[in-house]
Amino acid sequence: MTRSSMLPRSWALLPLRVIVGAGFLAHGMAKWHRGPEKFAKLLQLIGTPSPLATAWLVTGLEVFGGIAIIIGAFVLLASIPLFVSMVVAMLTIHVHYGFSAVNTVGLTATGPVFGPPGYEINLLYMCALAALAVAGPGALSVDQWLRSRDT
What we know:
2 strands, two-stranded antiparallel ribbon, mainly alpha, 7 helices
């Protein structure tokens, strides 16, 4: 028995989908708990038009898009605006700090001091979203369940 016959390929996307969705959900919930108004202040500093409305939009996108990705519901539809938000974040903020997501800027007696993250994580999220959008959500997904009902 080969490895590929033991486990269907559709299961390979499950951990990717759950981790990526959980990441977006965690970031969205952090914005929600701090208050989108605080995120809006950052957006205002970088010149985002309508920063408060944009903060609410991004917060909702990350929360509901993250949930959709986790459960595998409307993955292609959810992936597109999440991908765009990653491109915008990368080009407006993270690209200025280089590639690495971990930028050590100093060392103290208590440990390293970290600077702002680069665009590495944005690229990882974008690649994961692209893979899910192209390949589909995989096993244990609402999309797969809906497709099975149509046949």
